[in-house]
From TrEMBL, chain A:
<keyword id="KW-0472">Membrane</keyword>
<comment type="similarity">
    <text>Belongs to the CPA3 antiporters (TC 2.A.63) subunit B family.</text>
</comment>
<feature type="transmembrane region" description="Helical">
    <location>
        <begin position="67"/>
        <end position="92"/>
    </location>
</feature>
<dbReference type="InterPro" id="IPR050622">
    <property type="entry name" value="CPA3_antiporter_subunitB"/>
</dbReference>
<feature type="transmembrane region" description="Helical">
    <location>
        <begin position="12"/>
        <end position="29"/>
    </location>
</feature>
<dbReference type="Pfam" id="PF04039">
    <property type="entry name" value="MnhB"/>
</dbReference>
<feature type="transmembrane region" description="Helical">
    <location>
        <begin position="35"/>
        <end position="55"/>
    </location>
</feature>
<keyword id="KW-0812">Transmembrane</keyword>
<keyword id="KW-1003">Cell membrane</keyword>
From TrEMBL, chain B:
<feature type="transmembrane region" description="Helical">
    <location>
        <begin position="46"/>
        <end position="69"/>
    </location>
</feature>
<dbReference type="Pfam" id="PF00361">
    <property type="entry name" value="Proton_antipo_M"/>
</dbReference>
<keyword id="KW-0472">Membrane</keyword>
<feature type="domain" description="NADH:quinone oxidoreductase/Mrp antiporter transmembrane">
    <location>
        <begin position="143"/>
        <end position="422"/>
    </location>
</feature>
<feature type="transmembrane region" description="Helical">
    <location>
        <begin position="89"/>
        <end position="113"/>
    </location>
</feature>
<feature type="transmembrane region" description="Helical">
    <location>
        <begin position="285"/>
        <end position="307"/>
    </location>
</feature>
<dbReference type="GO" id="GO:0005886">
    <property type="term" value="C:plasma membrane"/>
</dbReference>
<feature type="transmembrane region" description="Helical">
    <location>
        <begin position="374"/>
        <end position="402"/>
    </location>
</feature>
<feature type="transmembrane region" description="Helical">
    <location>
        <begin position="20"/>
        <end position="39"/>
    </location>
</feature>
Amino acid sequence: MNTIIFRTMAPLIVAIMLVFAVYICLRGHNEPGGGFIGGLIAASAIAILGMANGAEATRRALRFDPLSIAGFGVFIAGLSGLASLFTGSPFMTSIWLYLELGETVVPLSTPMVFDIGVFLVVFGTISAISLGLEADGGEAS
Amino acid sequence: MGTFVLTDALIQTTTAVADWVLVLPLILALLGAAAALMLRKTANLCFLLAMLVVVAIIACEITLLLRVFESGPLSMTMGKWLPPFGISFVADLFGAGFALAASVVTLVVLVYAEGERGQGVDDNFHAMVLLLLAGVTGSFLTGDLFNLYVWFEVMLIASFGLMVLGGRPLQLDGAVKYGFLNFLATAFFLLALGLLYGLLGTLNMADILRGAPLANPAAIATIAGILLLAFGMKAAAFPLNAWLPASYHTPPAAISALLAGLLTKVGAYALLRSLVVVLPASRDLLEPVLVAIAAATLLIAPLGAIAETNLRRAIGFLVIGGIGSVLAGVAVPSLEGVSGAGLYVFHAMLTMTALYLVAGLIERATGATDTRHMGGLYAASAPLSILFLVLILATAGVPPFLGFWPKLLLLQASLGQGGWSGGLLAGALLINAVLTLIAGSRLWAHVFWRPAPGGATVLPMARGAVWTGFGATAALAALIVAAGLWPNGLFEILAVGAPDMIDPARYVEAVGLAGVAP
């Protein structure tokens, strides 16, 4: 499995997959996609990197522990629901902000923040599992 | 069909900030769990964070309880959608009271676990405990059956994680049994939900209350039967109780105390909520089954406790016996019956947790888990023996402890019911009390009173660890004794809360579905 061809191509594949994952996550509000599927794609990228470079090197490349990333995801998803406390609405009510940048309008919203949270949860959890499986006999923590 | 206007489906009134006490306990627990997961390498900080979060949750829940007590059930529907489109959270006195008991129990266990640190309670502990609390709080406060399923899953994930912390082979064995049977229960739950949604087109509890009387009674009763199977499994009612004694003794004592205090009680609460409040007509059809299950659970569980020599497994059977009492209340849903079941759930959360915590202290003092290798502990620690005896008496329902009052109410209810079912339940409740007393005092005599058998040792305990563990347990026991001696506050809450369970008109009104045609 760990041939020189694979090891050479892996960073390229991983980079493309990570960019694509972000794209899928952001287009998810009105079209097929979203945080969950984006997170899965990003986590598969990390799994490929783990196969090519080894789990330990991948962990270092991630900088943050995958489970902490997942925790951060839950945290910002929760906070995105909390924002509606200040608009006199129930929990999880969406708040929209339309940013006008030159000719286009960029809609920003709390559901987007929630979706990014979901992305991080899926990404962190699945990465932690795959890196744990790829480490030879090591403890996944 | 007119044109669809989005604002017709949205809540137009502003939500008062004060209403957020309903969802804050849940949000705090979830955010706390997330933060604890990020900070899990620093156990001291995690402990501090978890304590702060749980204290804040308790403060919110006391506010919530007082508010519901004064002005009736409180509801909030997420995302500004009108019920039944949005997910409703509803707190009535039963839900709010149980949520409060759950967080108090969690606080005690957090303090107790500090004394066990380094003994299998490792760095994911606090995150998992807060996640479990989030699941339990969500279950008690949600007003939507599908949402209840979601919180069951959250609880399952967290409890599964807690059960394998430390990763000893015995724990994995227990966790597999626990996990498999609970997955099966949630699968049945989901099946029932699918059928119910197909039949009524809604899973909002208040909306079901309006729709169910118009639907085919046989179909609804079938769904109620599947729900009884699913929640009965969760609550460890006979004959679906095998997973509980097989798994609760395997993790560290603090964890098994938390699981014993919270998990089965959520199952019992779900039975109470779904059968007594939401589908009362189907409950009436299922009554003979309920009576039989309640009586069998009441009678067989303490026999298991008498036969068992492993201390924590024996206590597991006492937990199951308690579930029989709650089921008796579900089987006789008069005002006394529902009050008794509710008060029993409240009592069992505190008492069962305390019992497991004491068992943990005993195991630490003797270094054994089997009562055959214990003995003579009275000489080593008189306070511990008093604590254990008090909790055993509370479990059996001996006055003046907290366990007496719900048993009294349930006894009144079953005698008031009359007929064969009332007589059977009253007899089962009394025999259960006697058998529980026998099982408990037998355990007490073996562990504390008889001279230590050959080879049994009393280990010297590290002082600091003992004081946190003993102090936390004693505080919880003091709460149980105090609540038993001055039960007036609890009875005042029941006097308002139980009628709302039997006639949930105020509940439906709080959700905002009163007077609207289904």
